[in-house]
Amino acid sequence: MTEADRMPSTGPIPHLETFCKAAELASFTRAAEALGLTQAAVSQHVRSLERELGVPLFHRRAGRVELADAGRTLYDYARRILDLHDEARAALGLDTPGSEGEVRLAASTVPAECLLPELLGRFRAAHPGIRVVAEVCDSESAVEALEQGKATIALVGRPVAAPWAESWPFASDRLTLVVSGRHEWAGRASVSAEELRTRPLAVREPGSGSRRCLEKALEPLGLTLDDLSVLLELGSNPAIRETAARGVVAAFASAQAVAGELASGRLHEVAVEGLGGLDRLLYVAVDRRRALPPPARAFLRFVREQPSPATAP
């Protein structure tokens, strides 16, 4: 941006609604559609705002836009200003745009199957105008959906270490080895690592957070999954649960996913001697390069306000 483009002013900052919408949708075209403007008008508003402030607010890349550092700073203030406008409207009994909309969520199977139903019920009661659309997949696929902009929030079974992401723990889980009453290990409190190595097992599929937790837990024993007799790799918690219940194999499963079966006696928990590290946290993640629309910010705030996670029972 040249000196000629710099037009500092002490007056109100213009076009904040256009700026926020472009930031939240990562697209001038989609922002124009949402605001009922032409793309040229959105581009003009953003250029005028950048001239007003004297700094670039977006990186333009192949039809998409991402917030620059100055844009991320401005977005936090701009969103607060617009939120205050919404609060004023609400205080006057007027409609508030932030109270409606859609959240696109990608969730791995344990959060989706064990936590999301209750979570969504309570969120819906608090925010009846916001609709949550959830895709259920493994943790790796959920992170990919977040990176590609197909989801605005991800619930996954591991922290997201990528530099573009930010994640926070919101719940806990524990892996456990389970068998049916017909299995040879039924009635035993524990088995040795050597027994584990030689008996057929069922585990979760590559890409799942549960599988990654098990892989890390085996490392101190000098074992990998290749050292075990893995008979089945299954893509869902119900499949793991039912396979173990039929008595064919032992299975490593989420304690959350098999809590009912353990309580009823349909499945039995067996410890593995020397195997620790099976406790894990579940995470909510966002793409820090993209601004969250108000509905997604409401959902993120709701999730992060849940009680601090503790070890699963």
UniProtKB/TrEMBL annotation:
<keyword id="KW-0238">DNA-binding</keyword>
<dbReference type="InterPro" id="IPR005119">
    <property type="entry name" value="LysR_subst-bd"/>
</dbReference>
<dbReference type="Pfam" id="PF03466">
    <property type="entry name" value="LysR_substrate"/>
</dbReference>
<dbReference type="GO" id="GO:0003700">
    <property type="term" value="F:DNA-binding transcription factor activity"/>
</dbReference>
<dbReference type="InterPro" id="IPR036390">
    <property type="entry name" value="WH_DNA-bd_sf"/>
</dbReference>
<dbReference type="GO" id="GO:0000976">
    <property type="term" value="F:transcription cis-regulatory region binding"/>
</dbReference>
<dbReference type="InterPro" id="IPR000847">
    <property type="entry name" value="LysR_HTH_N"/>
</dbReference>
<dbReference type="InterPro" id="IPR036388">
    <property type="entry name" value="WH-like_DNA-bd_sf"/>
</dbReference>
<dbReference type="Pfam" id="PF00126">
    <property type="entry name" value="HTH_1"/>
</dbReference>
<feature type="domain" description="HTH lysR-type">
    <location>
        <begin position="15"/>
        <end position="68"/>
    </location>
</feature>
<comment type="similarity">
    <text>Belongs to the LysR transcriptional regulatory family.</text>
</comment>
<keyword id="KW-0805">Transcription regulation</keyword>
<keyword id="KW-0804">Transcription</keyword>
<protein>
    <submittedName>
        <fullName>HTH-type transcriptional activator CmpR</fullName>
    </submittedName>
</protein>
